[in-house]
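Run folding on both entries below.
>entry_1
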Amino acid sequence: MNPADLRYSKEHEWLRMESDDIGVVGITEFAADSLGDVVFVELPEVGATLAQFEKMGEIESVKAVSDLFTPISGEVLEVNEGLVDGPQLVNESPFHFGWMLRVQLSEKTDVDNLLSAEEYDALISAEEA
């Protein structure tokens, strides 16, 4: 159901490792569908330091405003500027064009604290039940 090459947080964010210490972060399709139409995304600035599972921003939909939590610790290298003018990319393509941050990990072991695709699928199945 969810891409097997990603790792997932219980808060419905994903991590795709691009190298040993660079990862891309976004929210899952489950989260995007649950939120409804996304109208605004607030993300940290380039250079900001993130701590695993801490708040990294907010996402606003037609239904509600929700906090975003970072699945890893590190420094923000890049923010998806396309979300400023096109926040709906989060709904249309959560695993590709709707990515949020590129981060240089400060703690590579953070990845071990995340769920596999199989574990995440089980989590969302339980939430839907």
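>entry_2
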Amino acid sequence: MLILIAKVWSWTMRCGFLIALVLGTGVLYVRLLDDDTIGKYQIDTKVGAALYLQYNCQTCHGTEGLNPPVDGYPHLAGQPASYLINQMLDIKYKRRNNGMTTIMWPTINQVNDSEIRQIGQYLARIQ
């Protein structure tokens, strides 16, 4: 029995190292995506700021995504751009429909994918 426990522990430690390595690589990849260029899209945070206001995002998420006026609305500022962009795209294309995402559908459907990337990059730069 003790030998079995030792083998399981050894396997767990090896897998834990591999999992940490994979997760670390994933974090590095996400950080690399948060450059000023994502794919073919050049990012201009001034444009993202204007779009954030144009689409009235501050109504639910607060000025610069920092202080949502309603409990339960997420703080957006400072999140990785790739995360923000993916969340907005998932909501727009209804791959995500939990929480209050249905409230966002009328607005997010007016925003094109390039503008979503601009907004996400803008919010990611806010500290």
